[in-house]
Each structure stands twice: as structure tokens, then as C-alpha cells.
Design goal:
By secondary structure, the protein is α+β, with helices and mostly antiparallel strands. It contains 4 helices and 11 strands.
Length: about 180
């Protein structure tokens, strides 16, 4: 379980996440801030992404991104990228039906996208989106004018499925290559 935030401003894209990681049906958890190399926001080549759902799928998405990137930086190009990821999951015998089950925020070539429930939408300048178990609390905090970091911290306080510390990644648009 998690909380993710993606915000697109004039000059930068901000991604935020908690660092709690729950697994199994027992509700066991650990905090990714103790695992410096594996956090909920990652960069592989020209792609920066965060994901909510199965940790194994998020890790496999990172492997997929090591050798591929979207052909275009528009909604259909990113949709095709996730369709190809589903095919790759099936080919690798990871997901028998080739379905991408997780939701992701993806930054590619100065644009911010949200893959949710099988479809891609672009998050335009001066807008934001939230995802994960704490999406309601995070959305409310952002709507009330809180920063991404403040919204993550408030969600950690309010939602039992968000925990740990806030992880914030700010990407200056003039530094993004793609």
C-alpha cells in the first residue's frame, strides 16, 4: 500500500511517495528508507517513474525500462509503451494474461503521464494527480494548497496504509532529456 503524488508546475515536475511497503496478506511491512537503492520513485535511463501495487511488477517495470523507452512522448506513445510492457510480462512468464496490474506515474521527455487502470492520461502544467491507498488524503491536502512533501506527510499521519517518510523527487524541466 502506498501514496503517490505527481505535480506538474511551470518549471518542474515533482513526484512524491511514502516509503512504507506492505506485503502479503499478513499486513507485514518494512520501510524502504532503510533500503537506499530501492525506493518508490526510480530512474532508469531517460524514464523517471513511481508505481503503486505489486512490488515485483514495479521491479520488473524497471527491468523493462532498461532496454526500452517510449517511441513518442504523447498519450498514445506512452499507452503503447505500457501495452508492450504487458506483452513483455507475458513473454517472461511473469503475468500469464499480459495484464499490467499496477498504476504508475511516468516522466519522459519533459512530460508527466499517469497510467491508471489500463489507460494513460497526461498531467498537464499546473495540475496534479494522486494514487495509491492514500490518494484521497493526498488529493485533499494538495487541493488545500499544501506542498507535495506536506501532502505526503499528512497522508502518512491520516492513512493506515501509508507509512515511513516522504520521498520527494523534483525534476527541473530544463534538465530533462529524452
Amino acid at each position: 500500500m502506498t501514496v503517490l503524488i505527481a505535480q506538474n508546475t511551470k518549471d518542474k515536475i515533482i513526484l512524491g511517495a511514502d516509503t512504507g511497503c506492505f506485503y502479503g496478506y499478513s499486513g507485514s511491512k518494512f520501510h524502504l528508507d532503510n533500503h537506499k537503492k530501492h525506493l518508490k520513485i526510480s530512474q532508469v535511463n531517460d524514464i523517471i517513474y513511481s508505481g503503486t501495487g505489486s512490488v515485483s511488477e514495479i521491479i520488473n517495470f524497471g527491468l523493462f525500462c532498461q532496454t526500452r523507452k517510449p517511441e513518442r512522448n504523447d498519450q498514445l506513445g506512452i499507452q503503447r509503451f505500457f501495452v508492450d510492457f504487458g506483452k513483455w510480462l507475458k513473454e517472461q512468464n511473469i503475468e500469464p494474461d499480459g495484464k499490467v496490474n499496477n498504476n504508475y506515474f511516468l516522466v519522459f521527455d519533459k512530460k508527466l503521464f499517469h497510467f491508471q487502470d489500463g489507460a494513460v492520461s497526461e498531467i498537464l502544467e499546473d495540475d496534479f494527480a494522486t494514487d495509491g491507498a492514500g490518494y484521497r488524503e493526498a488529493y485533499m491536502a494538495l487541493y488545500l494548497g499544501k506542498s507535495v512533501e506536506q501532502a505526503i506527510n499528512l497522508t502518512i499521519e491520516m492513512n493506515v496504509w501509508a507509512s515511513g517518510k516522504a520521498q520527494i523527487v523534483e525534476i527541473e524541466k530544463d534538465q530533462i532529456t529524452g
